[in-house]
Amino acid sequence: MSPQFIAAPPPRLRVGSDLKRHLWRMIRSIGVIVCQAFIPFEPRPKEIDPLPDPAAKLTDVQVRLCQWLFDQAEARRTHLEQKAQSTFGLMVFLVPLLSSVLVFLINKPNVQSAWNRIPAIAFACFSAILVLLGFISVLRALSVKAYETLFLGTVIDTQTGKFRDYIEADHARGLLYCTSMNTAVNDHIAQFVKGGQILMAAGVMVLLAAVVPASLMVALPAPSTETKIVGSINVSFVELKELRDEVANIRKELSTQARNTPPVKGRTFSGARMTSVKGNRLQPGGGTSVGRGKE
Q: How many Å apart are CA 193 and CA 68, to the nearest integer?
């Protein structure tokens, strides 16, 4: 059998005890992820045991290796912080969308879609709770500021104020101590970031589940309502007001003209027949009969 120097991807779990154990571990991890958003932690990891003194003098290669390990821990911390910031930005976009969906579902007055409305609101509320827990988890990941690095005490004696003699073993022990403490802090931040991403993904899946009853609720027609109006209604439109003003002006002009016009002497108007004093008559059919009276 030829040796393999390139690792293969992780194999699938076998159906049986391995799969059951993995599922049970997943369920327990979900409970831990939900609870860690509220569990208080110490501000920094526990102190490690003192590192041993080297039996021989360290070489520059060993010191550079310790420095490389320290830089790797710093690079991992930067990567975790960027991942937490991107997750936080995605949640900031998701929260207004979820709030809009909740407001729409709550303010939808449709009695016919009550059976669709209740599960849609329930799914949306559960999604909001998951997103809130993920939001808290990501905030806690961004708030972790414990970090170890070499400072003035590695170069200057704080009691005497003099420079220390450079010793490769002290330099290497300081780098390894900071690397160990920073790695523990990075693992702590990774737990919060992973929890925030899992909770956000679960919230999005539950929100998608709420879309199905919500779409059915929107598709149903709104119920028809009958409204009865009791009492008088004052309708005021601009065109109606202008027309009313014009009619009033015409009426005023006609009344003014009727008052200023002198009456016609010797004539009386009665129905469809007009009779003069001298006997001239106007027939209703348009004809005119002239009759001379006695003088």
A: 25
pLDDT computed for residue 16 by the predictor: 65
Predicted confidence (pLDDT) per residue in 31-88, tens digit: 788 888 888 888 888 888 888 888 778 888 999 999 999 999 999 999 999 999 999 9
Rounded to whole angstroms, how far apart are CA atoms 152 and 163? 10
Q: Where are the domains of the chain?
A: 59-219
Higher per-residue confidence, 10 vs 122? 122
